[in-house]
Write a structure and sequence with these properties.
Chain A is mainly alpha-helical and about 260 residues long. Chain A is built from 13 helices and no strands. Chain A has one domain (about 1-255). Chain A has helices at about 1-25, 25-55, 60-85, 90-95, 100-105, 110-115, 125-140, 145-170, 175, 180-190, 205-210, 220-225, 235-255. Chain A starts with a helix and ends in a 7-residue tail after the last helix. Chain B is an all-alpha fold and about 260 residues long. Classes of the chains: A mainly alpha (about 260), B mainly alpha (about 260).
Amino acid sequence: MSKIFDNISLYFSFLKASLKEMLIYRLDCIVGMISQIVTQLVEIIFIWIVFQNTDNLAGWNFMQILLLYGVTLISIGISDFCFDALYDIGPKYIRNGEFDKILLRPINPLISIIGSSKEFTALGYFGLGLFLTITMLIKLSIPITMILILKILFFSIVGASIIGAINVIFSIASFWTYRSNEVIWSFYRVYTFAQYPLDIYNKFIKFLITAILPFAFVAYYPTMNYLGMNSNMIYIAPMIMIILWVIAIKVWNFALSKYRSTGT
Amino acid sequence: MLKSMLALGKMQFNQYNIYKSNFYLFTLNRIVEIVVYIFVWQAIYNQTGNAGGYTIAQMTTYYILVFTLSSLSCWGVNEDMAHSIRNGNINKELLNPLSYFQYYFGVNIGEMGFALVVGIATFIICSLFWSITLPVSFINFLLFIILILLGIPITFFFTMIVGTVGFYSSSIWGMQILRKSIISIFSGLIAPITLFPIWFQNIANILPFKELIYTPINIWLGQITINEIVFIIMKQVLWIIILYLFAKLFFNHAVKKVTINGG
């Protein structure tokens, strides 16, 4: 157990180092944030158009959907911020032999890699998500109590960590293909399914995002709870997170044992 | 000249094709993106009996064709340009017997070739899951192809304008995302242009981006008359000339200022 905490505190010291590095490229960072917000605005325009054509989507109104969207963005922001370096395993570490150096360090290579994340532009997602969440909670006249704030905080982190675990699982593809980014990206994109009420999908997709790639627990079930729709599914989320991380670490260690250097 | 441009294109195409997994993953990506749009519109149709003025079969076809064409209008040589500016390769590219524009148009051909292959694969796989409306007539299909071909120089010159900004700023990828966002909104990628507010439609009617996605698909679906198409083709040719001149002037101005960080 203490080993896990050691690893987590190690992760934070890595984070501090990359924060300092990012501050050097302040302009790049700001441009990155703005462009992330712009891409999300494009999606929000789509939601707006949807509600020009209907007044509810499977029982959810415009503001409720935007709340769901905001809550998702908070988790996405946190997970992009923390786990961005997983995209680099193939192109940046394995292909050019950098990974061999990391293996020589006396610390867990997974921590070494995700610790080097510096996607500070993800703060753009986080900021937009927070803004949408707060505005929609006020507009929907949901009382913002201390309990709600703590709930949103806790389940956003759980959500981010669910996404992180899924990304870790798919990042192992880079041990064979030497390019993890597209593999992770393809599966990661499935999170967009859970930005809309599950009732619009057929059985296959519902099953996919609750059981196989459980993105529905990132924001969909939590948001239902905040809205007072169905309050129980949310409590399964932490369990899902733990199960996913156990699988992720097992799978990662298995992939690591099969690792063969490219020799460069 | 044409021969060397095609050779460049082939090189770029092969670079993508080295990793066969690339092809499957890009295609999978497209399909993942389509799913949300189609299910949302199906839900709207089931509730209101109307899918933005289209039948549900037409709307489904609309989005499948959107993601068949989206790589053609959203991909571009920006990253290659930015990369060569940063590592000094641009020196060699400027000294090429091919002009800079010709060189990158060649690279662009390869890029578009790969985008086309991914697009066609996306179309075929989607047609297994959803029923697709076929083009209303053979002439409409031909006009659909002509408009897509006219779109290629438009996106290319637009990309070159964005790429030239790379001479002034070292972080090009923000601009590139902006370029993609502009195209996504004004081309009808996220939703048919007719569903936007009137003032927005007026802007979109002037800009050339609508003809990259919205117009060809509506020709496929038989929503646009032949007379209108003649006018649209003339508009596109005019835009190609405008964008070409602007890209060229901007580039010629910028290239004088190029500072290479040691190569």
